[in-house]
Amino acid sequence: MFIYISKGKYEKHAADIEKAIFHLSRAKNQKAKVVLAIVMSDKASMFYKMGVYDSAAIWYLKGIELLEKEKKYDRTVGLYSNLASVYEILKLKDKQKEYILKCLDAAKIMQRDYDLFGAYSMVSQFYSGDNDFKKALQYSDSARLYFTNEMSQSREHLYYLVRAQAYEGLAQYDSSVFYFNKAYNISKANNYAWGMTEPLFRMGNAYMKLGKREEAEEFLLKGVKLADENGFTVFIKSGYDYLSKYYEETGNYQKALESYKKFYDANDSLQSAERKKVVLDLDKKYETEKKEQQLQLQRSSINKKEVLNYAMAGSIASLLLILFFLFVHIHKKENCRNKK
Predict the structure, then answer these.
(1) What is the average per-residue pLDDT within 112-125?
(2) CA–CA–CA angle 123, 128, 132 (5° rounding)
(3) Measured between alpha carbons, how far is 279 from 86 in angstroms, rounded to an integer?
(4) Nearest Cα to 1, choosing from 43, 51, 60, 59?
(5) Domain 192-267 CATH superfamily
(6) Are 163 and 179 in contact (CB under 8 A)?
(7) For 232, left (φ over 0), alpha (ψ -120 to 50), or beta?
(8) How many alpha carbons lie under 13 Å from residue 124 in its C-beta half-sphere?
């Protein structure tokens, strides 16, 4: 589900989720439990988009627990994947690996090509990030078995990117260029500048390793131009880092220094943005905590009203019962008098 986060809509959506959780948690049938798990996942996604990752992890886990009890593995595949992404951001590598492998296990149970392709690609990406490139390539080979033309282009792009990184890590640069180029072409066909930028840098770097200096400079400059035009600060930083090393390696020290200065400026800009993000994250967490407390109070108020309603209903029922027995007793006494 896509979550809207503007202030008014966030509050309404958060309140709707709380109401749904409150009522669904009281239902006993299986269908209601599955819907409850989906709503909990929705709440987790809301926290994820707000950058409150610890809360996102908690609510994904709650949804997963319900779905695991009901053995709804078709639903858990996506939640395992989302939770693994949260743990990656939180830098909890063991937990990330645990849920990536759970995602793969669930995909194997369901035997759906789309899930298997995505799960094997995720495992490949994990091992590539862990510098275990042989394993990354093995899982990428497994992912390829489930590739179909119905795959989303974002998944196909990720597959090529991860496969290229594995070949790059194994110093098989011709193969890495081949797959980086495939990732680049998919993004280019969709006019997706972000997805085009990284493959350009990585191809430039691979050409440097292969000793093809003209191609290396061409791809690095194309990548930097694209990053500059779109304001991709993180790519501007890595692009000028690559260029600085390239010019130093080729003996053009003036351009190496110019590129390094631009790398330094981009890095400084990113660090300033990161410091600002930390402050905003703390503010978000504070605001979220306040809203959670308000929602807890609302829930408590609803519970009290329900208890009061039940108590009143019980009192009325007791009173009616007393009146009924009193009526029967008086009626019997009247009958006895009439007989006398």
Answers:
(1) 93
(2) 100
(3) 20
(4) 43
(5) Tetratricopeptide repeat domain (1.25.40.10)
(6) yes
(7) beta
(8) 26
What are the extents of the domains in the chain? 192-267
Is the pLDDT confidence value at 340 over 90?
no
Distance of CA 55 to the CA centre of its chain: 12
Could you count the other beta carbons within 10 Å of the beta carbon of residue 144? Answer: 14
Contacts of 5 (CB under 8 A, 6+ apart): 46, 49, 50
CA distance 269 to 111: 46
Least confident of 126-140, 239-253, 300-314: 300-314
Higher pLDDT, 273 or 205: 205
Say what percent of the chain tops pLDDT 90.
52
Percent of the chain whose pLDDT exceeds 70: 75
Query: Contacts by 72-78 with C-beta closer than 8 Å and gap 24+?
Result: 72/34, 72/37, 73/106, 73/109, 73/110, 74/110, 74/112, 75/34, 75/37, 75/38, 76/102, 76/106, 77/103, 77/106, 77/107, 77/110, 77/115, 77/118, 77/119, 78/41
User: Which of helix, strand or coil describes residue 92?
Assistant: coil
Residue 335 token pair:
């009958």
Taken in order 147, 107, 126, 53, is the CA torsion positive or negative? positive
* pLDDT digits 0-9 by tens, 155-189: 889 899 999 999 999 999 999 999 999 999 999 99
The predicted model gives 227-251 an average pLDDT of: 89
Residue 236 pLDDT class (50, 70, 90 cuts): confident
Alpha-carbon radius of gyration of the chain: 30
Amino acid identity of residue 325, one-letter, is F
* pTM score of the predicted model: 0.69
- Which residue pairs from 157-162 have beta carbons closer than 8 angstroms and sit at least 24 positions apart in sequence? 157/183, 157/186, 157/187, 157/195, 158/121, 158/125, 159/117, 159/121, 160/186, 161/198, 161/199, 162/121, 162/124, 162/125, 162/128, 162/136
